[in-house]
Amino acid sequence: EVQLLESGGDLLQPGGSLRLSCAASGFTLSNFAMGWVRQAPGKGLEWVSMISVSGVSTSYAASVKGRFTISRDNSKNTLYLQMNTLRAEDSAVYYCAKGGGITAPFDSWGQGTLVTVSS
Amino acid sequence: QSVLTQPPSVSGAPGQRVTISCTGTSSNIGSGYDVHWYQQLPGTAPKLLIYVNSNRPSGVPDRFSGSKSGTSASLAITGLQAEDEADYYCQSYDISLGSRVFGGGTKLTVL
Protein backbone atom coordinates (compact mmCIF):
# COMPACT_ATOMS: atom_id res chain seq x y z
CA GLU A 1 0.00 0.00 0.00
CA VAL A 2 1.33 3.42 -0.98
CA GLN A 3 1.87 5.68 2.01
CA LEU A 4 3.14 9.24 2.11
CA LEU A 5 3.84 10.80 5.49
CA GLU A 6 4.61 14.50 5.66
CA SER A 7 6.33 16.15 8.59
CA GLY A 8 7.98 19.41 9.51
CA GLY A 9 5.01 21.76 9.63
CA ASP A 10 5.22 24.48 12.25
CA LEU A 11 4.20 27.97 13.33
CA LEU A 12 6.78 30.57 12.44
CA GLN A 13 7.24 34.25 11.80
CA PRO A 14 7.34 35.95 8.40
CA GLY A 15 10.77 35.75 6.85
CA GLY A 16 11.53 32.43 8.47
CA SER A 17 12.58 29.13 6.91
CA LEU A 18 11.26 25.60 7.19
CA ARG A 19 11.97 22.23 5.63
CA LEU A 20 9.15 19.79 5.03
CA SER A 21 9.79 16.08 4.59
CA CYS A 22 7.68 13.37 3.00
CA ALA A 23 8.53 9.76 3.80
CA ALA A 24 7.35 7.35 1.12
CA SER A 25 6.61 3.67 1.57
CA GLY A 26 4.85 0.94 -0.33
CA PHE A 27 6.49 1.89 -3.63
CA THR A 28 9.91 2.72 -5.03
CA LEU A 29 10.23 6.49 -4.83
CA SER A 30 13.00 6.54 -7.43
CA ASN A 31 10.56 5.39 -10.12
CA PHE A 32 8.17 8.33 -9.86
CA ALA A 33 7.98 12.08 -10.25
CA MET A 34 6.73 13.74 -7.08
CA GLY A 35 5.15 17.01 -6.13
CA TRP A 36 3.89 19.32 -3.42
CA VAL A 37 0.40 20.82 -3.37
CA ARG A 38 -0.88 23.23 -0.73
CA GLN A 39 -4.25 24.30 0.56
CA ALA A 40 -4.74 27.51 2.51
CA PRO A 41 -7.41 27.35 5.24
CA GLY A 42 -10.84 27.23 3.65
CA LYS A 43 -9.38 27.58 0.15
CA GLY A 44 -8.76 25.38 -2.86
CA LEU A 45 -5.77 23.35 -3.98
CA GLU A 46 -2.67 25.10 -5.31
CA TRP A 47 0.17 23.27 -7.05
CA VAL A 48 3.51 24.28 -5.53
CA SER A 49 6.35 22.27 -7.01
CA MET A 50 7.36 19.20 -8.96
CA ILE A 51 10.53 17.10 -9.24
CA SER A 52 11.45 14.56 -11.88
CA VAL A 53 12.42 10.95 -11.23
CA SER A 54 16.13 11.75 -11.31
CA GLY A 55 15.76 15.02 -9.47
CA VAL A 56 17.49 16.89 -12.27
CA SER A 57 14.32 18.65 -13.44
CA THR A 58 12.27 20.78 -11.06
CA SER A 59 9.48 23.30 -11.52
CA TYR A 60 7.71 25.78 -9.26
CA ALA A 61 4.58 27.86 -9.09
CA ALA A 62 5.25 31.53 -9.71
CA SER A 63 4.16 32.31 -6.14
CA VAL A 64 7.06 30.34 -4.62
CA LYS A 65 9.75 30.42 -7.30
CA GLY A 66 13.05 31.64 -5.91
CA ARG A 67 11.99 30.97 -2.31
CA PHE A 68 11.16 27.24 -2.27
CA THR A 69 13.38 24.33 -3.29
CA ILE A 70 12.19 20.80 -3.90
CA SER A 71 14.59 17.88 -3.60
CA ARG A 72 14.57 14.14 -3.13
CA ASP A 73 16.76 11.47 -1.57
CA ASN A 74 15.80 8.27 -3.31
CA SER A 75 18.11 6.25 -1.03
CA LYS A 76 16.01 7.40 1.93
CA ASN A 77 12.69 7.27 0.06
CA THR A 78 12.12 10.86 1.11
CA LEU A 79 10.94 14.02 -0.64
CA TYR A 80 11.72 17.48 0.72
CA LEU A 81 10.54 21.05 0.38
CA GLN A 82 12.85 23.77 1.64
CA MET A 83 10.86 26.95 2.20
CA ASN A 84 12.66 30.26 2.72
CA THR A 85 11.52 33.85 3.18
CA LEU A 86 8.12 32.66 4.27
CA ARG A 87 5.12 34.96 4.01
CA ALA A 88 1.72 34.96 5.65
CA GLU A 89 0.20 33.83 2.35
CA ASP A 90 2.30 30.66 2.49
CA SER A 91 0.18 29.48 5.42
CA ALA A 92 -1.46 26.25 4.34
CA VAL A 93 -1.62 22.52 4.66
CA TYR A 94 1.13 21.14 2.47
CA TYR A 95 0.48 17.80 0.78
CA CYS A 96 3.07 15.53 -0.71
CA ALA A 97 1.74 13.75 -3.79
CA LYS A 98 3.00 10.94 -5.99
CA GLY A 99 3.08 11.52 -9.71
CA GLY A 100 2.08 14.80 -11.29
CA GLY A 101 4.06 14.72 -14.50
CA ILE A 102 2.82 16.94 -17.31
CA THR A 103 0.20 14.41 -18.33
CA ALA A 104 0.13 12.29 -15.19
CA PRO A 105 -2.18 12.77 -12.22
CA PHE A 106 -1.27 12.93 -8.55
CA ASP A 107 -2.37 9.39 -7.81
CA SER A 108 -1.57 9.22 -4.09
CA TRP A 109 -1.52 11.91 -1.44
CA GLY A 110 -0.20 12.23 2.08
CA GLN A 111 -2.32 13.47 4.96
CA GLY A 112 -0.66 16.89 4.90
CA THR A 113 1.36 19.01 7.30
CA LEU A 114 0.29 22.47 8.50
CA VAL A 115 2.49 25.49 8.03
CA THR A 116 1.40 28.71 9.71
CA VAL A 117 3.25 31.94 9.10
CA SER A 118 2.23 34.68 11.49
CA SER A 119 3.78 37.39 13.62
CA GLN B 1 -8.95 33.45 -9.77
CA SER B 2 -8.07 29.93 -10.82
CA VAL B 3 -6.82 29.14 -14.30
CA LEU B 4 -9.48 26.44 -14.58
CA THR B 5 -13.01 27.59 -13.79
CA GLN B 6 -15.44 25.45 -11.82
CA PRO B 7 -18.83 26.34 -10.34
CA PRO B 8 -18.43 27.03 -6.62
CA SER B 9 -21.25 24.69 -5.71
CA VAL B 10 -23.70 22.14 -7.07
CA SER B 11 -26.38 20.14 -5.33
CA GLY B 12 -28.69 17.23 -5.95
CA ALA B 13 -31.01 14.85 -4.20
CA PRO B 14 -30.04 11.26 -3.48
CA GLY B 15 -30.28 9.15 -6.61
CA GLN B 16 -30.04 12.11 -8.96
CA ARG B 17 -27.33 12.95 -11.48
CA VAL B 18 -25.12 16.03 -11.23
CA THR B 19 -22.36 17.37 -13.42
CA ILE B 20 -19.43 19.61 -12.56
CA SER B 21 -17.82 21.62 -15.32
CA CYS B 22 -14.18 22.63 -15.63
CA THR B 23 -13.54 25.36 -18.16
CA GLY B 24 -10.05 26.10 -19.37
CA THR B 25 -8.40 27.89 -22.25
CA SER B 26 -6.29 27.22 -25.33
CA SER B 27 -3.23 27.20 -23.04
CA ASN B 28 -4.32 24.20 -21.04
CA ILE B 29 -7.28 21.91 -21.77
CA GLY B 30 -7.64 23.37 -25.26
CA SER B 31 -4.03 22.47 -26.04
CA GLY B 32 -4.87 18.82 -25.49
CA TYR B 33 -3.57 18.45 -21.96
CA ASP B 34 -5.33 15.81 -19.96
CA VAL B 35 -7.72 16.58 -17.13
CA HIS B 36 -7.77 14.80 -13.80
CA TRP B 37 -10.38 15.01 -11.06
CA TYR B 38 -9.96 14.75 -7.30
CA GLN B 39 -12.44 14.26 -4.50
CA GLN B 40 -11.77 15.79 -1.09
CA LEU B 41 -14.04 14.58 1.67
CA PRO B 42 -14.38 16.92 4.66
CA GLY B 43 -11.22 17.02 6.76
CA THR B 44 -9.27 14.63 4.55
CA ALA B 45 -6.61 14.73 1.86
CA PRO B 46 -7.64 14.81 -1.81
CA LYS B 47 -8.07 11.49 -3.57
CA LEU B 48 -7.71 10.79 -7.29
CA LEU B 49 -11.16 10.20 -8.76
CA ILE B 50 -10.73 10.36 -12.55
CA TYR B 51 -7.46 10.42 -14.49
CA VAL B 52 -6.66 11.24 -18.09
CA ASN B 53 -10.10 12.69 -18.75
CA SER B 54 -12.24 9.61 -18.31
CA ASN B 55 -10.45 6.80 -16.49
CA ARG B 56 -11.35 5.56 -13.04
CA PRO B 57 -8.71 4.25 -10.63
CA SER B 58 -9.39 0.90 -9.09
CA GLY B 59 -12.00 1.17 -6.36
CA VAL B 60 -13.81 4.23 -7.73
CA PRO B 61 -17.46 3.39 -8.42
CA ASP B 62 -18.67 3.61 -12.01
CA ARG B 63 -21.19 6.20 -10.84
CA PHE B 64 -18.35 8.64 -11.45
CA SER B 65 -17.41 9.47 -15.03
CA GLY B 66 -15.39 12.12 -16.81
CA SER B 67 -15.30 13.63 -20.25
CA LYS B 68 -13.39 16.29 -22.12
CA SER B 69 -14.19 18.36 -25.19
CA GLY B 70 -12.48 21.41 -26.59
CA THR B 71 -11.44 23.72 -23.77
CA SER B 72 -13.65 22.08 -21.14
CA ALA B 73 -14.07 18.93 -19.12
CA SER B 74 -16.89 17.55 -17.02
CA LEU B 75 -17.35 15.22 -14.10
CA ALA B 76 -20.67 13.40 -13.86
CA ILE B 77 -21.96 11.64 -10.78
CA THR B 78 -25.03 9.45 -11.11
CA GLY B 79 -27.08 7.82 -8.37
CA LEU B 80 -26.02 10.47 -5.85
CA GLN B 81 -25.31 9.21 -2.37
CA ALA B 82 -24.84 11.08 0.88
CA GLU B 83 -21.21 9.93 0.99
CA ASP B 84 -20.53 11.83 -2.24
CA GLU B 85 -20.80 15.13 -0.40
CA ALA B 86 -17.33 16.60 -0.84
CA ASP B 87 -15.23 19.14 -2.71
CA TYR B 88 -14.24 18.24 -6.26
CA TYR B 89 -11.26 19.67 -8.13
CA CYS B 90 -10.16 19.42 -11.74
CA GLN B 91 -6.48 19.64 -12.67
CA SER B 92 -4.51 19.98 -15.88
CA TYR B 93 -1.30 21.50 -17.22
CA ASP B 94 -0.91 25.01 -18.58
CA ILE B 95 1.73 25.51 -21.25
CA SER B 96 1.81 29.30 -20.88
CA LEU B 97 2.41 29.12 -17.15
CA GLY B 98 4.56 26.01 -17.39
CA SER B 99 2.76 24.62 -14.39
CA ARG B 100 0.11 22.21 -13.20
CA VAL B 101 -3.12 24.04 -12.51
CA PHE B 102 -6.19 23.29 -10.43
CA GLY B 103 -9.74 24.49 -10.70
CA GLY B 104 -11.11 26.48 -7.80
CA GLY B 105 -13.09 23.52 -6.56
CA THR B 106 -16.79 22.69 -6.43
CA LYS B 107 -18.64 21.84 -3.26
CA LEU B 108 -21.22 19.12 -3.83
CA THR B 109 -24.15 19.09 -1.43
CA VAL B 110 -26.45 16.08 -1.32
CA LEU B 111 -29.84 17.41 -0.31
Report on this model:
The complex is a heterodimer of chains A (about 120) and B (about 110). Chain A has about 120 residues and is mostly beta strands. Helices cover about 0% and strands about 50% of the residues of chain A. Chain A has strands spanning about 5, 10, 20-25, 35-40, 45-50, 60, 70-75, 80-85, 90-100, 105-110, 115. In chain A, a hairpin with a 5-residue loop joins strand 4 and strand 5 (about 45-50). Chain A is globular and about 40 Å long. The model of chain A has no long low-confidence stretch (mean pLDDT about 95). By secondary structure, chain B is an all-beta fold. Chain B is about 0% helix and about 45% strand. Chain B contains no helices and nine strands. In chain B, strands 1, 3, 4, 7, 8 and 9 form a six-stranded mixed β-sheet that branches. In chain B, strands 2-6-5 form a three-stranded antiparallel β-sheet, with no helix packed on it. The termini of chain B are far apart. The chains are: A mainly beta (about 120), B mainly beta (about 110). The interface between A and B is medium-sized, with 24 and 27 residues.
Describe this protein with a few key phrases.
heterodimer; A: 119 residues; mainly beta; seven-stranded mixed β-sheet; globular; B: 111 residues; six-stranded mixed β-sheet; three-stranded antiparallel β-sheet
Topology:
The complex is a heterodimer of chains A (119) and B (111).
Chain A (H helix, E strand, L loop, with lengths): L2 E5 L3 E2 L5 E8 L8 E6 L5 E7 L6 E3 L7 E6 L4 E6 L8 E8 L6 E4 L3 E5 L2
Parallel strand pairs in A: 2-11
Antiparallel strand pairs in A: 1-3, 3-8, 4-5, 4-9, 5-6, 7-8, 9-10, 9-11
Chain B lengths: L8 E4 L5 E6 L12 E5 L6 E4 L13 E6 L2 E6 L8 E9 L4 E4 L3 E5 L1
Parallel strand pairs in B: 1-9
Antiparallel strand pairs in B: 2-6, 3-4, 3-7, 5-6, 7-8, 7-9
Number of strands of chain A: 11
**Based on CA inertia axes, which overall geometry of chain A fits?**
globular
Give the strand content of chain B. 35-45%
pLDDT average of chain B, as an integer? Answer: 97
Percent in helix of chain B: under 10%
Q: Kindly name the structural category of chain A.
A: mainly beta
Largest sheet descriptor of chain A? 7 strands, mixed
Rg calculated over all Cα atoms of chain A: 13 Å
Describe the global form of chain B. globular
Distance between the amino and carboxyl termini of chain A: 40 Å
Strand content of chain A: over 45%
Oligomeric state of this protein: heterodimer
Helix content, binned percent of chain A: under 10%
**Helix segment tally of chain A:** 0
- Which regions of chain B contain 5 or more consecutive residues with pLDDT less than 50? none
Radius of gyration of chain B: 13 Å
> pLDDT below 50 for ≥5 consecutive residues: which ranges of chain A?
none
Terminal CA distance of chain B reads 28 Å
User: Total strand count of chain B, please?
Assistant: 9
